[in-house]
Amino acid sequence: MWHQRTMGEQVMAYFWFAAALLAVVAELFSGAFFMLVVAVGLGAAGAAAWVAGDSWPELPWWVASTVMLSGFSLLWRRRKAKQLVAALPDADIGQAVQVVLWRDEQHARVRYRGTEWEARLVEGERLGQGHESYLIAGRDGHEWLLRCQTKPTNEANSEQ
């Protein structure tokens, strides 16, 4: 059966819940995702304070620190994994694309991997230089960066 909570037990639980709410508000203003980890840890401490009451006054501190350290560890591992993936070379670089439509002198719609994509020429490349083939040179957001594919000239063959 539930025991009647003393005023001190309720105040401590409300203290933790209020701190969690302040951490959520701080996250909304700062945009720092780690503040949500702090808020979850403080909320868990509030729940622990509510359940344990005065029988184990250190429990909320242990719960808050354990939840926060676990959350920070998870965020750190996730960030490291994203950095490893970002460091991998893009397999699309150097692949040929088919230009479907030129929107202007720099921007085009291209067909690649069975669908159409937005693309633009890299700095220094210009439309109308006799190039018909383009290769992927990189990516800028959702746009492919294209460079002209150099074709072997027949001049070397005609001199022989």
Walk me through the structure.
The chain is of the alpha+beta class and 160 residues long. The chain has helices at residues 7-30, 34-52, 59-87, 155-158; strands at residues 96-102, 107-112, 115-121, 134-140, 143-148. The protein folds into two domains: 7-87, no CATH class; 96-155, OB fold (Dihydrolipoamide Acetyltransferase, E2P) (Beta Barrel), CATH 2.40.50. The chain has four helices and five strands; from the N terminus they run H-H-H-E-E-E-E-E-H. Strands 1-2-3-5-4 form a five-stranded mixed barrel. Helix 2 (34-52) runs antiparallel to helix 3.
Features:
5 strands, alpha+beta, OB fold (Dihydrolipoamide Acetyltransferase, E2P), rod-shaped, 160 residues, 5-stranded mixed β-barrel, disordered C terminus, single chain, 48% helix
Ordered list of secondary-structure elements with their pairings:
Elements: H1 7-30, H2 34-52, H3 59-87, E1 96-102, E2 107-112, E3 115-121, E4 134-140, E5 143-148, H4 155-158
Parallel strand pairs: 3-5
Antiparallel strand pairs: 1-2, 1-4, 2-3, 4-5
Helix pairs in contact: 1-2, 2-3
Helix amount, in percent? Answer: 40-55%
Uncertain segments are: 155-160
Number of domains: 2
Overall 3D geometry?
A: rod-shaped
Helix-and-strand structural type: alpha+beta
In the sheet with the most strands, the strands line up as 1-2-3-5-4
- H/E series, N to C? HHHEEEEEH
- Mean pLDDT, to the nearest integer, reads 84
What is the structure about, briefly put?
The protein is α+β, with helices and mostly antiparallel strands.
